[in-house]
Amino acid sequence: MTPRQFTIGMVAGEASGDMLGAHLMAALRVHLPGARFIGIGGPGMQAEGLDSLFPMERLAVRGYAEVLRHYPGLVWMRRKLRRALLEARPQLFIGVDAPDFNLGLEASLKRAGTTVVHYVSPSVWAWRGGRMGTISRSVNHMLTLFPFEEAIYRKAGVAATCVGHPFADMIPEEDQTASTRVALRIAPERKVIALLPGSRQSELRYMADTFIATAKLLSQKIENPLFLVPLVSRETRQYFEAALYRADAAELPLTILFGHARDALAACDVALVASGTATLEAALLKKPMVITYKMAEASFQLMRRMGYLPYVGLPNILAGEFVVPELLQHDATPENLAQVLLNTLNDMVVRERIPRRFAAIHRELRRNTAEQAARAVLPLLAHAMSSTA
Question: Which CATH architecture does the domain made up of 3-164+367-388 adopt?
């Protein structure tokens, strides 16, 4: 068969999945230049040639309360997408993260004879471990980002390959503080605090006011501070600016960046980060941080009862201990956050120890992720093609 006859289904549910999917598509095209990709993805995957049947933004909901509000629409979209994929008859389907949406879709496709790969393990090691049975019924192979996950799946009888994390490939191991400050025209002696309140409007709804109030407290206790706030969209910027207005915080020494989260983290002395992928970026940049998060109270209570680990931030999970502080939900008051950030900023022992711990994590995760993922996928695709020949 010629490469033009390969059809690969893919679904990503948010920006981080779109990035992973786009990199994997580019790596696969080296081997399969004529392959067709169909499913759901964002601008990155579409630029690599994905025929996206629905807007990816419809999948970008988080937390039980938020998902319940969107549930009928998500069910309708998954049904329509399943029908379209079954008609397209892909030899391989790759679900990129978004497990609550993808696993049900993957189970249907697997029953229909499609070989299924899931890229990015659900957090079965942190909460909802009962999903392992669903995963084993839904996928043929799991691609994990973290080494400890591979062993968990293999022990459960699910084929798995650790491919590393793309951020570890993208971010240099050397310190980027001085060069980034030169690029951003920030004086080397200035105290810089990066504020990352989240990438979704729903996250800013819970986090923006708290982050601004924290910055106001810090500005009273730090000489000549600078707050860098990277925001990913016009909507999130408008929401944050409205929160600044509500807080009467126009005088804060604060710069909003359009995107450039990595630059903000690279330039900072310490970061306040909403729990998520940004905490891993901060760790790979070897930065001290305080991790925080707020969500709908119902969602928080459910997740707390179902959790297995004492920490939620990826840096602490990967280290296996509390390397950086976490203040969540009711503990995430401006007073608490400001005090812990000050403690971190002023503790030289901590600021010397943290980069060493994070450097070890960086080395472990640096594996040329996209190529490793492609190498894991290609034999599965070849087997699927031979089975239907």
Answer: 3-Layer(aba) Sandwich (3.40)
Query: Which residue bears the tokens 């008051």?
Result: 333
Two domains, one topology: 3-164+367-388 and 170-365: yes
Pairwise CA distance, residues 120 & 17, whole Å:
9
CA distance 229 to 197: 8
Positive or negative torsion for Cα 167, 169, 171, 174: positive
Contact 69, 37 (CB under 8 A): no
Helix axes 64-88, 99-111, angle to 10 degrees: 30
Please list the pLDDT of the chain residue by residue as tens digits (389 residues): 344 468 999 999 888 899 999 999 999 999 999 899 999 999 999 999 999 999 887 775 554 444 445 557 678 888 999 999 999 999 999 999 988 889 999 999 999 999 999 999 987 755 556 678 899 999 999 999 999 899 889 988 999 999 999 999 999 999 999 999 999 999 999 999 999 998 777 788 888 999 999 999 999 999 999 999 999 888 888 989 999 999 999 899 999 999 899 999 999 999 999 978 899 999 999 999 999 988 777 766 666 665 556 778 899 999 988 999 999 988 999 999 999 999 999 998 888 899 999 999 999 999 999 999 999 999 999 888 777 65
Residue 379 CB neighbour total at 10 angstroms:
10
The CA distance from 46 to 216, in Å, is 41
**CA 249 – CA 254 distance, rounded (Å):** 9
Give the residue extent of every domain in the chain: 3-164+367-388, 170-365
Please name the CATH architecture into which domain 170-365 falls: 3-Layer(aba) Sandwich (3.40)
Distances (CA, A) of 134 to 99, 104, 108, 120, 224: 10, 9, 12, 15, 53
The CA distance from 355 to 110, in Å, is 43
